[in-house]
Amino acid sequence: MFLAISILFIVSSCGSDDSNAKFHLEKRYWDLSDYETAIFLIKGSQDGYPRYGSNKAAVFTKLIDTSNFSVVMSDNSLGLKHRNEFSQKMFDYYRSMHDVYSTIDNRDKYVYPMELVDVMIFGLDLQRHYFKLGNDKIIKEADNPDSEEIKALIRSNDQILVGNYVIYLDCINRETALSSEAISKYAIGIDKYFSNLIKLYPAANYSEMQSKAILMQKKAESKEIKDSLTKLISLLEEKNKKEEILPN
Predict the structure, then answer these.
(1) Is the pLDDT score of 15 beyond 60?
(2) Is the CB of residue 116 less than 8 Å from the CB of residue 110?
(3) How far is CA 4 from CA 7, 8, 14, 16, 31, in A?
(4) How many structural domains comprise the chain?
(5) At 97, is the secondary structure helix, strand, or coil?
(6) 104 has which bridge partners?
(7) DSSP letters for 120-187
(8) Does residue 15 fall inside a structural domain?
(9) Minimal CA–CA distance to 187: which of 224, 138, 220?
(10) Over 90: is that where the pLDDT of 8 sits?
(11) pLDDT of 86-140, one tens digit each?
(12) What's the CA gap between 63 and 136, in Å, rounded?
């Protein structure tokens, strides 16, 4: 009887010390309260943040799961006001995630390089939904959606989105702070999301992005980033040529 009680106590103790249980990993999608709780727990961690290869790898994977926000922000059956409020909160949480995982050590290296890049890529996808919902709300609430004032506001928002993507390229200035694996993933982010942005917002002004890409292509050290920037520059140059031959 004593042995059985001892075994029961050990099993119960292990279960109560399972810190991952606080993160609700059993849920298919995390909601805003799950993100609030997760970020609070992560910031308060004394033994490092959730990362790949750790016993909290599943927590980080859940944290950057883009389906957590896309399932809400892309659901047209939900109210536009509700989705905009949700997207604003998610954007705030994204910025908190970026602040957490951009920690630098005493060698000027990112402590969480792979995780930081994944958070940044999470942000690229999130912002695409975020700005679209904001524009949809502006159009819906405008007395005259076709007015020049509203069209100018939409164009301004589109340009802010493009500018935020340009900020992604700033990380190349700190390329040596990334691991080789993180560099490869960072380059994939350029390949996938920048080309998609150009397709979705063809009327936006990409001159700043093109200039930045040219500068960073010269500065980049890794072949992966150089190749990705070369493809981006070529894509923008091709876009410019098509616009030049269009009739006025």
Answers:
(1) no
(2) yes
(3) 5, 6, 16, 18, 40
(4) 1
(5) helix
(6) 110
(7) HHHHHHHHHHHHHHHHHHHHHH-S-TTSHHHHHHHHHHHHHHHHHHHHHGGGGGGGGGS-HHHHHHHH
(8) no
(9) 224
(10) no
(11) 999 999 999 999 999 999 999 999 999 999 999 999 999 999 999 999 999 999 9
(12) 27
Residue 232 confidence (pLDDT) above 60: yes
Residue whose C-alpha is closest to residue 200's, from 148, 158, 235, 152: 158
Query: Of 51, 45, 43, nearest to 19 (Cα)?
Result: 45
CA distance 94 to 212: 24
Give the residue carrying structure tokens 């609030």.
36
**Residues 189 and 168 sit within 8 Å (Cβ to Cβ):** yes
Q: Is residue 2 part of a domain?
A: no
User: Could you tell me if residue 49 is inside a domain?
Assistant: yes
| Tens digit of each residue's pLDDT (9 = 90 or more) over 205-230 | 999 999 999 999 999 999 999 999 99
Which tens digit of pLDDT belongs to each residue from 142-198? 999 999 999 999 999 999 999 999 999 999 999 999 999 999 999 999 999 999 999
Please give the residue range of the domain that contains residue 206: 22-245
